[in-house]
Amino acid sequence: MYQNSYNKNWYAMTDAVVVQTLCASLKQMRLNKNISQEELAEQCGLSRITISRMESGKAINLLTMVQVMRALGKLDLLNYLNEEPEISPLQVMEERSKYRKKASPSK
């Protein structure tokens, strides 16, 4: 049965399972593009062993993940991690109070 990856309960998973799931997703992305581990390794500038270890669920560093995602054309997935700072309503009111509300009378 096909499980939609958007409905995973990431918080219920251990960290190791999260890593394994992400690595399996990267492997599936590679397979969907019909690229061998060796070809992906060449595109990333990594060794085939590194790709193999990653796909078997071994922990990888963030740089390796970015290199693989770039080679797979999936860097746009990182947009979900890019969070803008929130401005509180109080800060908005304080900023607005600094703006001039009336023109000064002419002399």
Automatic annotation (TrEMBL):
InterPro entries: Cro/C1-type_HTH, Lambda_DNA-bd_dom_sf. One of its GO terms (molecular function) is DNA binding. Residues 26-78 form the HTH cro/C1-type domain. SUPFAM superfamilies: lambda repressor-like DNA-binding domains (SSF47413). This is Helix-turn-helix protein.
